[in-house]
Amino acid sequence: MTMDRQTRDQSHRPVDAEPLLQIKHLSVDFRLATSVVHAVQDVSLTVHAGETLAVVGESGSGKSATALSVLGLNPTPPCVYTGGEILFDGHDLLKLSEKELGRIRGRDIAMVFQDPMTSLDPLQHVGAQVAEVLRHHTGMSRAEAREAALDALDEVGIPDPAQRYRQYPHELSGGLRQRVMIATALVGRPRVLIADEPTTALDVTVQRQILDLLVTLQHKHDMAVVLITHDLAVVAETADRVAVMNKGEVVESGDVLDVFDRPADDYTRRLLAVTPRLEAA
Amino acid sequence: MSPETRTPAAADRPLLELDGLRKEFGGRNVNVAVDDVSLEVREGETLALVGESGCGKTTLTRLLLRLLEPTAGSVRFDGRDLATVSATELRAVRRQMQVVLQDPYSSMNPRMRITDIVAEPLITHDPAVRGRRGRARARERVGELLEAVGLNAGIQDRYPHEFSGGQRQRVSIARALALQPRLLVLDEPTSALDVSVQATVLELLAELQTRLGLTYVFVSHNLAVVRQVADRVAVMRRGRLVEVGEAEQVFHTPQHPYTRQLLDAVPVLDPRRGRRAAERAPRTSGESR
User: Fold this and answer.
1) Which helix (H) or strand (E) holds B169?
2) N or C: which terminus of chain A has fewer CB atoms within 10 Å of its end residue's CB?
3) Across the interface, do A205 and B262 touch by the CB < 8 Å criterion?
4) B264-285 as b/e, with b when 16 or more CB fall inside 10 Å?
5) Residue B2 lies in a domain
6) Rounded to a whole number, what is the distance in angstroms from the first to the last CA of chain B?
7) In the structure, how many helices (H) and strands (E) does chain B have?
8) Which of B57, B193, B195 to mutate to test the interface with A (most CBs of A within 10 A)?
């Protein structure tokens, strides 16, 4: 990212506030049998407590690879982290061991994925999957974890949590499954939530509910949210700041109002121009 | 078939008429997927069919293509009732209605060359392109079709995996056009594509419609896309049409509460007007929270 792009990135926070999560000059390669894909190239991003940073781009832009790097979830091999650092709480996450990362995942930094059907365990009651996070990270007893999990299901708006607790993922609608996944992500009270296309598989009315839920919970817990999406309208609705990615690079980042009002990069302008609008132009 | 040899639809007769269509699935626990749907599609227009997952829109398209038998009701294409026409006539009607599906990755046989994929409907319906002598004719026609959808005629001997999602969707469109249909059912034709690719495919569809006088039934869950392409909009919910109207009217003055609910749910591409605009306003003046 060049300096003139960075200068547009003005936070509304006091200058001295430290970002909670800082990605600095991250580069990620995928070394395949016959070629190397430079999936992420010199990407720098920051997010503060209580703030939503949207990372927007089309397929192959590197937005998911960037997000997965934070918790070391890119498959290695073929993934190789070739440069940069990811700073959280004074640690470079890229340098942590798998065991150390395991303590951060779900407790300090949690993730929500696009498809709850593939991220939830089909053979376990959904409530138990929420409780498992607590059992893993805290010394909670089975009964305590169950109580906390019921509260978590209630908090994400699941009606009749006690009954739902004992259901399997396939017994729930897509919207309820996504709420369960959000509950598993938030039950550990993370300070950073990374949401990778959290509403892409959902119907528009359900998408609305889930986006509203994420915003409400973010305010309640003063979480930092990194929202990975392909949809500029979702960005406009939820983000404080936005980073636009194309072919592995951040081509533009800044306050969402600035980027939408005065997109500086050609690719951003083109993306805004081709996104269909509900209101006639 | 050239346009002149077609039966000209009487000016006041729709190309497609659905009357009281009903489709039930299942035995003891009957599931009514489509419930008393009546709808007309006029020649040359784009009718958008919108609704959320499970509302019955895909079943409805299968009924109108006669890929499914309705439990009750009728489908008339160009005035002919598809339930009563002879097998020969049904074949003739089927040539005139073609379909483009959502996913260009799963809707083509990965082991067939592009030329065979596009020529398949020709070979099924047109004896003149069969056999050794027909083969040259088929390749020529496939070349024309590929060029019509903005692809190079020279790609005929390549395989689907060599192409991007947008290019594959163009191949699907070329295949759908092979028999010079009058009606195209486009079932979420751009939902699997990136937004910049979607834009070019929508442009192509608009251009083909004007050039070939095509009629589109455009199935979509994306109201912003529908806004861009539709002349008229039919809103479906739980197997029923809750609202049908001119696109302008449906988007500006929706009559049914469900239509309003759908429109309200669509994220707005304007950070000053979306759901968070109010909470954002004071912060833009430089205050911190």
Assistant:
1) helix B165-177
2) C
3) yes
4) ebbbbbbbeebbbeeebeeeee
5) no
6) 68
7) 10, 10
8) B195
A38: phi then psi, degrees, rounded to nearest 5? -85, 85
Q: How far apart are CA B38 and CA B70, in angstroms?
A: 13
Least confident of A117-121, B15-19, B89-93: A117-121
**Which region among A20-24, A180-184, A248-252, B74-78 has the lowest average model confidence (pLDDT)?**
A180-184
- For B202-237, b/e burial (b = at least 16 CB within 10 A) is bebbeebbeebebbbbbbbbbbbbbbbbbbbbbbbb
Q: What domain range is B126 assigned to? A: 15-285
Amino acid code (one letter) for B108: M
| ipTM of the complex model | 0.79
Contact B195 A238 (CB under 8 A): no
**Residue B5 domain flag:** no
CATH number at residue B235: 3.40.50.300
Q: What is the rounded distance in angstroms from the CA atom of residue A99 to the CA atom of residue A198?
A: 27
Task: Give me the pLDDT at residue B258, please.
Answer: 95
Q: Name the DSSP class of A78.
A: T
Query: CA-to-CA distance for B173 and B203, rounded, in angstroms?
Result: 13
Looking at per-residue confidence, does B278 or B182 come out higher? B182
Structure tokens at A211: 């986006």
Q: Give chain B's domain count.
A: 1
Contacts of A275 in chain B (CB under 8 A): 195, 224, 269
Residue-wise pLDDT for A151-164, tens only, equals 999 988 888 999 99
Residue B9 forms part of a structural domain: no
| Amino acid in the structure at residue B189 | P
Q: Tell me, yes or no, whether B199 lies in a domain.
A: yes
Tens-place pLDDT, residues B230-269: 999 999 999 999 999 999 999 999 999 999 999 999 998 9
At A280, the pLDDT band (50, 70, 90 cuts) reads low
Say if the Cβ atoms of A12 and B287 lie within 8 Å: yes
